[in-house]
Design a protein that fits this description.
The protein has helices at 3-22, 25-45, 179-187, 209-215, 250-267, 290-302, 311-319, 337-348, 368-383, 397-401, 405-411, and strands at 52-59, 69-77, 86-91, 99-104, 111-119, 125-129, 133-137, 144-148, 153-157, 190-197, 219-225, 231-236, 244-245, 248-249, 272-277, 282-286, 327-332, 353-358, 388-391. The chain is α+β, with helices and mostly antiparallel strands.
């Protein structure tokens, strides 16, 4: 009940008492009418349970961070009593810094009202949006009720990324073998597990002739696949290294860059393995095709910078199992000596390594000595045959990550 409703109820009580005091029946009738009005407005403002339902959908269903999203709403009155003009409220639960409000109605019995709300953009992540709430108020402002209607909605907001016609890391010319060529060898790299007698119908291409000569029986090599990825994407989620405000920080820019590089690699026929350096690091495989792109982008949508251990620990964990010829792309804002040593070690073992460096100096004030040290380390990476690209907050990803003639000249002497 609103303040006006309470005032009306008190006025009805005062009218009744005046009628008793003066013995005037007309005042009783006025008091009764006021009470009836109050009760009727309460009934109109409080639809029966299950009478008013809300259905909600997003277009697109898997929105991309920062891009407009249209939320379609369908409010249905399943009862036999009209629903007064109402206001619908939706919390976006961390996906955006706004609370959506929209007025609608009235809605007649067995009728439906449909409308849409345009949201400028959401943050990357996985969210469970609470059920919308509806506030119903009678035309006189006497009664008001707020109730949750509908269901929770789970939405995955994919990372912002760009479509690359070419990639600065995978140009192929003047920098060794093209990854598309390496992809074939990556898929066919196997470890020898043992030998056993050949069974009829099995291919002769894996016959171990040395063992066959010793035993006089056809012996078959048993192997297991060593890796199925041509490119490994490593996202640095070190919590202490993140600079900027939520949704516009170094980690978000690193995610967008890695998503752009990954989608380009998948569209050129390369398989990927994504490793997110986190408190509980995990590996996700993605094969070329639309399904692989969804796997990659959905995995990056869930990534959080919560790692307390140094990035070097994750590199050392997976580095020993990386086959020669597999490319490794690291996206990080934290360039240090440990990273330089680990990537140099990978390269010495025949693993081409690349760095997407997100400049934290654009997000927070840094001492000149720190900036100078980072430039020195990036230069040393280049001298060791580990190309890098530096991204700043205002940079356009497409020209920065694409292969340009300038990059060709700059890296033309680097041999993988």
């Amino acid at each position: 009940m609103t303040a006006r409703g309470f005032g009306l109820a008190l006025f009805a009580l005062a009218t009744y008492l005046a009628g008793r005091l003066l013995g005037t029946e007309e005042l009783y009738l006025v008091a009764l009418a006021l009470v009836a009005m109050t009760v009727l407005t309460q009934v109109l403002a409080t639809p029966a349970r299950g009478t008013l339902t809300v259905e909600r959908s997003l277009d697109p269903t898997a929105p991309v961070a920062g891009e407009p999203v249209e939320i379609h709403l369908r409010v249905t009155n399943r009862g036999m009593v009209p629903v007064m003009p109402s206001e619908l409220t939706m919390s976006l639960a961390g996906a955006a810094d706004i609370e959506l409000r929209s007025s609608f109605g009235p809605i007649g019995p067995r009728r439906t009202s449909q409308f849409s709300i345009l949201v400028p953009g959401l943050r990357r992540g996985l969210y469970t949006l609470p059920a919308p709430s509806i506030r119903t108020e009678d035309p006189l402002g006497i009664a008001r009720r707020t109730r949750s209607r509908g269901r929770e909605t789970t939405v995955t907001v994919l990372p912002a990324h760009v479509t690359l016609e070419s990639c600065v890391f995978f140009g192929g010319r003047n920098r060794g073998q093209d990854p598309r060529t390496r992809a074939t060898s990556a898929h066919s790299t196997y470890d020898l597990r043992g030998v056993r007698p050949h069974q009829p119908g099995e291919p002769l291409s894996r016959i171990d002739w040395k063992s066959t000569a010793k035993t006089g029986v056809l012996m078959l090599r048993e192997t297991e696949e060593h890796t199925r990825s041509a490119v490994i994407l490593l996202l640095d989620g070190t919590e202490a290294a993140v600079a900027g405000r939520r949704g516009d920080d170094t980690f978000e820019l690193a995610v967008s860059a890695l998503a752009s590089v990954g989608v380009h690699a998948l569209r050129t026929g390369l398989s990927l393995k994504l490793i997110v350096h986190a408190d509980h690091p995990g590996e996700v495989f993605a094969d070329p095709g639309e399904r692989g792109e969804r796997v990659l982008l959905t995995s990056l949508a869930k990534a959080e910078p919560d790692a307390r251990r140094p990035l070097a620990m994750t590199i050392q964990t997976f580095g020993s199992s990386v086959a020669a010829g597999i490319s490794v792309v690291v996206a990080t804002s934290n360039i240090d000596r440990a990273l330089l040593a680990d990537l140099s070690s990978l390269r010495e073992r025949g693993t081409p390594s690349y760095v997407v460096h997100v400049d934290s100096g654009a997000y927070r004030t840094e001492h000149d000595l720190i900036a100078q040290e980072k430039r020195s380390l990036l230069h040393e990476l280049s001298l060791r045959g580990i190309p890098s690209v530096t991204l700043r907050s205002a940079d356009d990803l497409e020209p920065t990550l694409s292969l340009s003639p300038e990059m060709e000249r700059r890296w033309g002497g680097v041999r993988q």
